[in-house]
């Protein structure tokens, strides 16, 4: 399996941000890490191996990046308004820096990535897609929560609103983004119902999508399915098999 790494100093985030790419052909998949983890997490926990057959067959190129969760949502020393501002800067890093690299690598300026992630990575992948359905083609969100207000100690401003899917999707009534989402065919919201899972959070997001006429799949696995890597290694290839 072809594997390449790179890094650059991000002008949006004012820090060096690395990226790893896997594969030689096929549509792009952008992977967001869990919690405070890094761009190599999905390799270390064998999630990349779990989708290796898609990559080696040229059905998929996977790209994995760092998040800013360790500085933002998970940083108890960071004032809440700066946590929220950093989420907006991270969004700009994705759209202004990561996506041009992927387009150049794939050789197709119209090639919109699918996003994915587990746990906090599910939030990041969903937020990227739902904010930019013109730039991404869909999302596979695994075991996520889509309301970040619990990390922000009551603080609320535009940076919170526009990075909180349950808020901005509930109020989405425009003539550009909503029609794009209503034509979607690659939205999968997945969760187990076992230890440390919170399937009600996936149901809450699905209820909002239903209310807005946005097609999606809510796929809740059994009560033996925990918030853990063995299940995400099953969920992601299963979802890709449905979508590719």
Q: Any chance you could write out the topology, listing elements then pairs?
A:
Elements (H helix, E strand, L loop, with lengths): L2 E8 L4 E8 L5 E5 L8 H4 L2 H4 L1 H5 L4 E5 L14 H27 L7 E5 L1 H12 L6 E5 L15 H4 L3 H4 L8 H6 L4 E5 L7 H13 L5 E4 L8 H15 L1
Parallel strand pairs: 3-4, 3-5, 5-6, 6-7, 7-8
Antiparallel strand pairs: 1-2, 2-4
Q: Report on the biggest sheet.
A: 8 strands, mixed
**What is the tally of beta strands?**
8
CATH homologous superfamily (4th level) name: Alpha/Beta hydrolase fold, catalytic domain
How far is it from the N-terminal to the C-terminal residue, by CA?
Answer: 19 Å
Measured as a percent range, the helix fraction is 25-40%
Described by the principal axes of the CA atoms, the overall outline is globular
Secondary-structure class? alpha/beta
User: What order do the strands of the largest sheet run in, or round the barrel if closed?
Assistant: 1-2-4-3-5-6-7-8
Q: What's the gyration radius in Å?
A: 17 Å
The overall number of domains is 1
| Mean pLDDT across every amino acid position | 96
- Total count of helical runs of at least 4 residues: 10
